[in-house]
Amino acid sequence: MGLQRTQAVVIGRRPLGEADRLVTFYTREFGRLSGVAKGARRPRSRFGSALELFTQGQLLFFETERSGLVRVDHFDILHPFVPVREQLEHLGQGSWVLECLGRLTAERDPQAALYGLLVRTLRALEEIPRPARAALAFTLRAVDLLGHRLRLDRCLGCGKPPGDAPRLDFAAGGLLCGGCAPPVGDLLQLSGQAVRALRQLRVLGWEQLLAASVSGAVEAEIASVLEAHVVRLIGQPARTPRFLAQARRSLTRATGP
Ligand SMILES: [Zn+2]
Model pTM greater than 0.85? Predict the structure, then answer.
């Protein structure tokens, strides 16, 4: 079978057998792809440190007969994104990005725009001082690219402006105003401020989105709405938010109140 070449980012890795590694990539040409890197855990492996999480590289692989796994031939580093791995908060936000890609995309479903978004997000995580904003920007864009954009301009029930305390109906794909939302149920309540900010952020260019001024409370509310949306799309609780919460708690303990 032929040798294939594509740009890729390492989004998952685990040990396999005695010395091998099972690596999941998000690639530009093939979408999500998993492969075996033979001997990658040996001390003098030819892969060196190339197969670390977040590393962007040029991937050369062979197709195999075995359950869709490819054989990783070479992975030459283009950009290692080391700073994303080195700080707890960056690592946590970056892990959220990788989890979204790992769980919201199908194997071998190429989406070049999503690959571009991933690389832009890693660059932002490396460069901007607020990793949470980079992750928020990623989630906002990824949900759109994957075709799950929520309708936020009017109430899905009556068509009127959603008002100041709308509820989010993920299943229906948008907002319900106070009058149309059922009095009980598990719809997420949202502030009018957060709805307005979300709508504004969605139309901004990437750099503006990273730099936009949003109050801490509204940013946190938007982040939790996006997280709830992703959790709903995944169909089960995401792993990263708990990791982030634990990381923040341990940082608080380490540095004092
Ligand atoms: Zn309504």
Answer: yes
